[in-house]
Every structure is written in structure tokens, then in C-alpha cells.
Write a structure and sequence with these properties.
The chain is an all-alpha fold and 135 residues long. The protein contains five helices and no strands.
Length: 135
């Protein structure tokens, strides 16, 4: 395999193209705009409307927000480390703010999670099996 799972993991954690490793996942100067294709290798980042591309990143964002922010706020209020009113304000603010902050991370990690399980679907890895069969 030309692109290994370890490389896919590192590229996903650093918001890079899973195929070539270029820092081309997002449009420069536009926080909420992801490139449709990698300008370096032409890899198509976004799936079609019928696949689970958006569901992967949305569910990751939701899971990170609930487990990493809202649940700790709930525990702090339950064990009376913070006031209930403070917890309410934090929960409301965090339930909007944390997904915005995690937008790029969740989009990158959605791609990373898929290609860690299916690395053979990356264009850089396609055709390698047929070359091995000829040997």
C-alpha cells in the first residue's frame, strides 16, 4: 500500500489530504468552506449527497461536543463545583460554540475514519493490487 493507515491517521489529525498529504482540505481564508477537490492531486473530498459523508462529520462533532464539553459541565453542576445557572449558560454557549470550533476537525476526522478502514479506496492506493497480482 502506497498510503499506509498510519499516514492516513497523521494526515487526518493535521487536516491534510488523505491521498497526497497536502494542506489542501480547506479553502484559505474561509473557515467553513472545504475544497471539493484537492488542488494538488485532484482527490474528491466531498462525497455525493447519497453517501454518509456529512453524517460522519456531524456525528463526530456531536459526539465530541457531548462527551468532551456538555457531560463535564453536567458533572461539575451535579457535584456542585459550579452553580446550576453557570452550568446552563456554559451548556447553551458550548452547544453552539464547540461545534463551530470543531467544524474543521470533525470534517477532517470524518475522512480519516473512513479511509483508515478502507485505504484501498484512495486513488494513490488503487491499482497496486493488480500490479501485485502480475508478479
Amino acid at each position: 500500500m502506497k498510503v499506509t493507515r498510519a499516514q492516513i491517521l497523521i494526515r487526518g489529525l493535521s487536516h491534510c489530504c488523505p491521498n497526497c498529504g497536502g494542506r489542501t482540505l480547506f479553502r484559505p481564508g474561509a473557515y467553513f468552506r472545504m475544497n471539493e477537490l484537492c488542488p494538488t492531486c485532484g482527490f474528491k473530498f466531498e462525497g455525493t449527497s447519497d453517501d454518509a459523508f456529512f453524517l460522519r462529520s456531524t456525528s463526530l462533532n456531536f459526539g465530541l461536543t457531548v462527551t468532551g464539553f456538555l457531560f463535564p459541565v453536567l458533572l461539575l453542576a451535579y457535584f456542585k463545583r459550579i452553580e446550576v445557572q453557570t452550568a446552563e449558560v456554559l451548556a447553551i454557549t458550548g452547544s453552539v460554540g464547540v461545534p463551530i470550533i470543531l467544524y474543521r476537525t470533525s470534517r477532517s476526522w470524518g475522512l480519516m475514519n473512513y479511509y483508515i478502514f478502507f485505504p484501498e479506496e484512495l486513488p494513490a492506493n488503487q491499482g497496486l493490487d493488480s500490479a501485485r497480482e502480475k508478479l
